[in-house]
Amino acid sequence: MAWNEPGGNSNNQDPWGGRGGDRKGPPDLDEAFRKLQESLNSMFGGKKRGSEGRGDKSGGLGLVAIVLGVLAAIWLYSAIYVLDEQEQAVVLRFGKYYETVGPGLNIYFPPVDRKFVENVTRERAYSKQGQMLTEDENIIEVPLTVQYRISNLQDFVLNVDEPEVSLQHATESALRHVVGSTEMDQVLTEGRETLASQVHERLQRFLDTYRAGITVTQVNVQNAQAPREVQEAFDDVIRAREDEQRERNQAEAYANGVIPEARGQAQRILEDANGYREEVVSRAQGEADRFSKLLAEYQKAPEVTRERLYLETMQEVFGNTSKVLVAGKSGQSNLLYLPLDKMIESRGGSATAGGAPAPAAGSEVGTRSVNDPQQKDLRSRERR
């Protein structure tokens, strides 16, 4: 027999917790809600229903107060916010810029106000890589990284829609402009620093024109390279340039070693020439002075000066020859002879050097007679 049929077994239990004839109906939700309301009224100073006969009016007011209190707590929780040392917030009131607040405890009034919080000191980065066309119509791949930060939060929030997307577009435009006006050799080798500096300058000018509130701190152009299909040929070209630079450095080092030495030798030759010039000039001036003094002496005593000059000349002439002049007694002729021993020695040395035998001691060697013209000339001078 079913549990809800009349005369059922008293031991059967109904689903509402009753047994047999003591069955109860489902719980009264109104009663449960009433008890909850009375509990809340007692907490907030209200009175219970029933014996006082207040009815439902006071209970409704208490519930409204509770709801309003909960809503006020939720609103206050959402309106108060805290910014750390790196953050700033822009507050809009009725959609119009109201203020920019800094770190600390702040409050705004939603939904009248709206706030935008951003970290204004953190360095942000954006990377870009793509194929570019250079000035000499070569295609290269140029990877670069742009580091930036927010410098003006008001401009960043209000002036440009999606300012970081605008930064990416401006970066690509600046990079293509600079690479398109630069030759491939400069981009691949030593011109990367110049390329990065030019991209940085042009990109910042674009952002200032947009009033995006972004400051570019650094642009790094990484190792640019040729497309993968022709990379080996470009590597050969780069190695050839490196060899050229190495040979040039070696040549410059050699020139730096040779040129100072050549300059030293040239300076030494100039100093020798100057010394020789001074020597010749001084000797000429001395000879001129000696001749002037000798002329004065000759004018005073011509005979004596002439004789002295003759003797000095003869002494100088015969002092450099192997001939010996022997003067006899007065009235006897002078005899001029040759020193045979010195002549034999000199001829022996020359013959040995030239490979021909030396002549005999008595061959073709003789004395000049007293009738020799030189002897006559000497005697005539002595008579004078």
From TrEMBL:
<keyword id="KW-0645">Protease</keyword>
<keyword id="KW-0812">Transmembrane</keyword>
<feature type="compositionally biased region" description="Low complexity">
    <location>
        <begin position="348"/>
        <end position="363"/>
    </location>
</feature>
<feature type="transmembrane region" description="Helical">
    <location>
        <begin position="61"/>
        <end position="83"/>
    </location>
</feature>
<dbReference type="InterPro" id="IPR036013">
    <property type="entry name" value="Band_7/SPFH_dom_sf"/>
</dbReference>
<keyword id="KW-1133">Transmembrane helix</keyword>
<dbReference type="GO" id="GO:0008233">
    <property type="term" value="F:peptidase activity"/>
</dbReference>
<dbReference type="InterPro" id="IPR020980">
    <property type="entry name" value="Membrane_HflK_N"/>
</dbReference>
<feature type="region of interest" description="Disordered">
    <location>
        <begin position="1"/>
        <end position="30"/>
    </location>
</feature>
<comment type="similarity">
    <text>Belongs to the band 7/mec-2 family. HflK subfamily.</text>
</comment>
<dbReference type="InterPro" id="IPR050710">
    <property type="entry name" value="Band7/mec-2_domain"/>
</dbReference>
<feature type="domain" description="Band 7">
    <location>
        <begin position="78"/>
        <end position="238"/>
    </location>
</feature>
<keyword id="KW-0378">Hydrolase</keyword>
<protein>
    <recommendedName>
        <fullName>Protein HflK</fullName>
    </recommendedName>
</protein>
<dbReference type="GO" id="GO:0006508">
    <property type="term" value="P:proteolysis"/>
</dbReference>
<feature type="region of interest" description="Disordered">
    <location>
        <begin position="346"/>
        <end position="384"/>
    </location>
</feature>
<comment type="subunit">
    <text>HflC and HflK may interact to form a multimeric complex.</text>
</comment>
<comment type="function">
    <text>HflC and HflK could encode or regulate a protease.</text>
</comment>
<feature type="compositionally biased region" description="Basic and acidic residues">
    <location>
        <begin position="374"/>
        <end position="384"/>
    </location>
</feature>
<dbReference type="InterPro" id="IPR001107">
    <property type="entry name" value="Band_7"/>
</dbReference>
<keyword id="KW-0472">Membrane</keyword>
<dbReference type="InterPro" id="IPR001972">
    <property type="entry name" value="Stomatin_HflK_fam"/>
</dbReference>
<feature type="compositionally biased region" description="Basic and acidic residues">
    <location>
        <begin position="20"/>
        <end position="30"/>
    </location>
</feature>
<dbReference type="InterPro" id="IPR010201">
    <property type="entry name" value="HflK"/>
</dbReference>
<dbReference type="Pfam" id="PF01145">
    <property type="entry name" value="Band_7"/>
</dbReference>
<dbReference type="Pfam" id="PF12221">
    <property type="entry name" value="HflK_N"/>
</dbReference>
